[in-house]
UniProtKB/TrEMBL annotation:
Stretches the record annotates as Disordered: 31-70, 123-146
Protein name (database record): PepSY domain-containing protein
Signal peptide: 1-22
Keyword field contains Signal: yes
Superkingdom per UniProt: Bacteria
Keywords: Signal
Boundaries of every PepSY domain copy: 70-125, 151-198
Record Pfam families: PepSY (PF03413)
InterPro entries hit by this protein: PepSY (IPR025711)
Amino acid sequence: MKRNIVIATLTAAALAAGGTVAAFDAGDDEATATQRQADTNARAAADRDDESATGDSADDDRTAAPRGSVTAAEAIAAALKHTPGTALAADFEDDGAGAWEVTVVRGDGSEHDVRIAPDSGKVLGAQRDADDDKDSDDRAELAAVKGASTDAREAALAAAAKGTVTEVGLDDDNGAVAWSAETVKDGKHGEWKVALDAGRVTQDRDED
């Protein structure tokens, strides 16, 4: 009885002062735990919303297939027809409208970015890379590609056996140059190496 009188007295005093009342009994403890869990759930939901809004979820991007019917190999072929040279990379850029972006090095050494429509294969535009100065590694990769029996288009075709190709480019692993391809299949992301000499496809263990 005395305990109830004390609690009632403290409650009245706190309310008169405009303050809050601390919970003393078991019922209040349970309510506090419930509120803490609700706060935790609310924070988790807010974090998920922020991640979705800012596009921070890399896994979602890596498992998204390119829009349109044009494949990576077809995009490379279209880019080379418009801008003859050596294709070094192709990547689907989903920046709203979405397009394939193919990097081509011409005979004079200049580097060009050619954009290809994903639904028609038409050239949307091409521009020279203003910052195309190449270091020794870049020159070595370019030399390796020019002397290879498998080019970027053929590498894309080979990797297509593993899924829909979203990106193809060059990978220099301690001086061993090979094509690197990324694919999507059944909602899963895959990374592969394609040999320059024979086009053999192996899983990229470094990225596994």
